Amino acid sequence: MFRRIILTLLLVFSLGAQAEKKVLTVAAYPAVDAIVKAALPAWQQKHPDVDVKVVAREYADHHTAMTTALATSSNLPDVMAVEYGYLGRFAMSGGLEDLAKPPYLAHQYRDQFVAFAFAQGGTSAGTAGGTGGQSAIPTDIGPGTLFYRKDILDKAGLQESDLTSSWDAYIASGKKIKSTTGAYLLAHARDLKDILIRANVPAGEGVYFDAQGKCVVATSPRFKIAFEQAKAVRGAGLDAKIGAWSNEWGEAFKRGNVASQMMGAWLGGHLSNWLAPQTKGLWRSAPLPGGINAAWGGTFFAIPARAVNKELAWDLIRHLTLNKEQQLAAFRQHDAFPALKAAQSGPFFEQPIEFLGGQKARLLWRDTSLAIRPTAVFKHDPIAEEIVNAELDLVLTRDKPIADALKDAGAMIDRRARR
Amino acid sequence: MPKASVPYLFLSPFFLLFGIFGIFPIVFSFVLMFQQWDPVQGMGAMQFVGLENIRFTLEDPWVWKSLRNTFWLAIASGLPQHLVAVPLAYLINEKLQGSRNALMGAYFLPYITSTVAIAMMFTTLFSTDYGLVNALLEALEQWPLPSWLIPQERIDWLGTPETVKPVIALVVFWRYLGFNLILYVAALQSIPRELYEAARMDGAREWRIFWSITLPHLRPMMMFSMTLSVIGGLQLFEEPFILTGGKGGVEQAGMTTAMYMYRTAFEFNDFGLASAMSWLLFLMIAVATWLTNRAFGPQQESI
Amino acid sequence: MTGTDIGQRPIGPIGIVALTMGAVMMLAPFYFMFVFATHTRSEIFSMPPPLWFGEAFLQNLDILRAKIPLWRNLGWSVYVGLMSTALTLLFCAMGGYAFAVYEFRFKRQLFGIVMATMLIPSFLGMIPSFLIMDFLGWIDQPRALYIPGAAPAMGIFLMRQYILSAIPRELIEAARMDGCNEFRIFRSVVLPLLGPVFGTLGLITFISSWNNFIGPLVVMRSVEMYTFPLALRSVQSPVDTEWGALMAGSAIAVLPLLVLFVFSSRRLIAGLTAGAVRG
Fold it and tell me: Thinking of the domain A144-294+375-417, which architecture would CATH place it in?
């Protein structure tokens, strides 16, 4: 091993002694790093004098490192991958280059992307059609869908429309499923709450705050309905109380203990690859109940304001996001659903998906993605989510009255948000 | 007589390193306590807010809940560690010298197991529907044991506020028992054999020997490792973090102060508040350490 | 000693059973880590999990190798660990010796300061530490990992306790009367007697340096310079982790620690046989 180290060092030194190559630094997390690396050969043909260094870190580590870098304006990459959940914070920080301005002029590409994704990357709190700045360009999105077990539904004598026509129908179906097959309807009541609070958010508002930044948890009917339905589901014993991505969750899918799961479309790939490959052909993908369109996550690329190689960075970002082949390749290898509309057609999209019993689900997901509306993001969204989850727990496990829970949640959030 | 400067020279590496690397972070964190700072906005975004952070911390119900959790966990996981490690070290040293290495190795393994592996193992073990622990409890139903001892239905270990704390305490105990064992065995090496032999020749019983010879000699090491346990317990972060998936569990039953601090800083992006919390925690740890010192000190000073 | 001496009575059967059960419980997760390292991701993610070794180890290694330069990362971890341990043993022995053996002005206060530094939680210091490293130009350098923490208060504390209880004053006095200067005494009389505590502190220091990933996360900016735990973490994805590969990596990561443990526990024994200090 020592020899290897010496050899490596010699190699590094000798390389450094060569002509000065430009180095472009890209910071990302799995699987975005793999996507970027796969895209490099094509890009480097156009830029043979540029070395691209991909710095991969675990998802949370990456965002922590980016937070540190933005805080100290030092050690910033040229291209920064940012996930949907962190985008709001980073976008409003002032540390990212405004891509709407020259020489980038990102708005010229606006129509090529799925509307909500592009809007979400804007600085004026993501309002659709806004003319504010642009902090980041979307590369992939997670259109929300309802995966369900057709075989369980069949056994219970139900159709897909029984699940999706409305939320009441969804829950009623759940009761039937439980009584006839013993399977749970969903993994956790909280999943239901998460969807319902995102349903029909008025334009310009966020999930927890209205356009003026005032907390709406205690006043908006969305939360009341969400809490009530979650409680109904728990009360009827329809949720398995399993957290997502745990061993139990995977096992529940393998054994068919959970009949449905709402999540981003990319879950299909995971189910097929490793979560429950044996259940091939038994699943289907449906639109979310009640006609809701929502997104689960998504990846964006941004350029820090203090980055060194901004033009090269912009070129790489355009290659990653505007290039149809590139977007399709990412979709094929890593289930990264393209944010580029042009990539959302073609034979791959028309292909029946075996795991889903031959369903041409990608078309469904595309339609969903086009119908999603952006929501405004606020600085206090993470703590608001935490507080609301805590109150929901109290409602579900300690029978706290919903009105009290929402009132308390609103009060706590106000207290935090005043800071 | 040694020159007066000698002790200072011996201490110089520590103070040099501390001066360069230790002081600035402490000052920075202290100053930060009086600022409101969202780190993503860069250094210039700090805003002076006086005592606002401190007031908020003292009024935040979650801070007090996390402190209660932390103290409970520190005691519940720390005390058994030492109660078991001391006699175990004695046994290993006295009776089991042949298999000493193997035993110490076995008990030490948890300390070097990676946190990823630990998280996987214990969440699997305590899984509600498929875990070994619940399976064993169900098997026990076959035995004629009083019914209050056997739970009637499957326990959701990690999802119920009452049970998640004992599970975390168990994992911490499991992880650090071997660490304390090593310390105590090392300390036991320094007790001269002649003392034991003389006592045994005098016909003293094993328990008496343990109490009158071993324990007093162990006192300095006990103070050291107890202090470490107190500090480590009050700063507990990793085990609750991995067992509750980073969220603190239902009703924040598993959220320690250190975890709440971390989330305040990196999830809720409020560094000033996190700083105020960390200084509050520092005060508590300082008091607890001082108390431990009183209990196990004072040391015989050098001549 | 006669065979009937109480001290020689072997431990009873109940004791043996208890000890063995205890050892098994300690071993089990460790064992499973190695078992999981030899299985594929979907084999692991099932209940009951596999109980015996599988055949996917090499496959997992390949997956890992494709994602990170794992031997380089391991090399850095070893290097940083060794440097950290060597410096820590020396500096802490010096510091502990000072507090244990000498009387000097401000002794109490200085010791108080040393102790106080133990109480400060680490991650809030991330950003100021980063600023210091940036200022010194130590970003992306291993020395940023082992130099700042090279004299941990915990080590000084441990050394002090050990020296107080294991090094008799008379030995030092005798050496002084023989005309040795203070540093000579430290080097020739005291250091050789610190075997057991060196073994202990060395082990603890190496392990803590090995498992530390916050330091490298802040300071390193290229995957080639990562230490192993950080590199391993970078393979983890929120939804797409290759668990088999991760376990294989964890298993590899633990082997040097095991080796070190075996090595240092021999020192502990050597300390015993050589350490009949009195008499």
Answer: 3-Layer(aba) Sandwich (3.40)
What DSSP designation does A239 have? B
Q: Do A67 and B268 touch (CB under 8 A)?
A: no
Exposed/middle/buried for residue C188 (C-beta within 10 Å: 0-12, 13-18, 19+): exposed
Residues of C in contact with B21 (CB under 8 A): 129, 132, 147-148
The SS3 assignment for B49 reads coil
Chain B residues with CB-CB distance to A73 below 8 A = 42-43
Separation between Cα atoms, residue A336 and residue A115, nearest integer Å: 17
Q: Where in chain A is the domain with CATH 3.40.190.10?
A: 18-142+296-361, 144-294+375-417
Q: Of the candidates A20, A84, A11, A13, which has an alpha carbon nearest to the alpha carbon of residue A266?
A: A84
The CATH classification number of A18-142+296-361 equals 3.40.190.10
Q: Is the peptide bond before C216 cis (omega within 30 degrees of 0)?
A: no
Left (φ > 0), alpha (ψ -120 to 50) or beta: where does A202 sit?
beta
- Inter-residue contact B81 to B267 (CB < 8 Å): no
Q: Please tell me the least confidently modeled range out of A53-62, A263-272, B190-199.
A: B190-199
Rounded to the nearest angstrom, the gap between the alpha carbon of residue B29 and the centroid of all alpha carbons in its chain is 23
**Which residues does chain B have within 8 Å of residue A389's beta carbon, measured at their own beta carbons?**
247
pLDDT in tens, B171-211: 999 999 988 988 888 788 778 888 888 888 888 887 888 88
Contacts of C5 in chain B (CB under 8 A): 200
- Contact status of B193 with chain C (Cβ, < 8 Å): yes
Residue located via tokens 């499923």: A177
The pair of three-digit structure tokens given for residue A216, joined into one six-digit string:
């709406």
Helices (H), A47-142: 59-72, 84-91, 115-120
A25-37 average pLDDT score: 92
The whole-angstrom distance between A230's CA and the closest CA on chain B is 16
Token pair, residue C211, equals 């498992």
C15–B13: do the CB atoms touch at under 8 Å? no
Mean of pLDDT values over A313-340: 92
Q: What's the rounded mean pLDDT across residues A363-369? A: 92
Name the minimum distance, in Å, from the CA of C256 to any CA of chain A: 15
Complex confidence, ipTM: 0.81
Pairing of strands B47-48, A22-28: unpaired
The reply to whether A382 touches chain B by the CB within 8 Å rule is yes
Phi-psi region at B204: left, alpha or beta (left = phi > 0; alpha = psi -120 to 50): beta
Interface touch A61/C217, C-beta < 8 Å: yes
Model pLDDT, residue B177:
92
| Cut 0.80: pTM above it | yes
* Beta strand A50-56 pairing with A22-28: parallel
pLDDT in tens, A161-215: 888 999 999 999 999 999 999 899 999 999 899 889 888 888 878 889 888 888 9
CA dihedral A285, A287, A293, A299 (to 10 degrees): 10
Gyration radius of chain A's alpha carbons? 23
Nearest to A71 among B40, B245, B246 (CB): B40
Flag if A71 and B266 touch (Cβ within 8 Å): no
Instruction: Calculate how close chain B gets to C187, using CA atoms only, in Å.
Output: 12
Q: How many residues does chain B have?
A: 303
